[in-house]
Amino acid sequence: MKKILLTITLISFATLSFSQQVSRYVVASGGNYSTASGISVSSTIGEPMVNTLTATAFILTQGFQQASITYYGCTDSNACNYDSTATVDDGSCLTVYGCMDVTACNYDSTAVCDDGSCLIVYGCTDSTALNYNISATCDDGSCCVDCFIEYYHPQTNDHIYV
Rounded to 5 degrees, what are φ and ψ at 65? Predict the structure, then answer.
């Protein structure tokens, strides 16, 4: 008896269809839709295949409408904290560029975005000075324009004054 009951149950499940019929409208991005005579689009949920319908100049691809997701962030592409995924500007954009290295001579305390302009080679920047440093980008106050410098030459025991 159990065998017969089990067989009947299996046959019942095997012959039942669990799919559902769905009719759709073509909806524009603005939310409008229209129906045209002679066009019918339908699909059965539960089928393991997806179809694309093509007719002359029209191609219909089916998809699912996603809920609109809002991402807050900086939407100004000129800001150093620009977020390309943000859809709504939250006022967090940072646009004050400058040198942010406190050891550089052109340090800008108002800068929030480092622009790579930091100058950190200290030395004499006066080209008329005796100790001019062509590589210096920051004057350190060591320039000697009208000064007396004594050089000692150890081989001759001479003192040279400049």
Answer: -75, 125
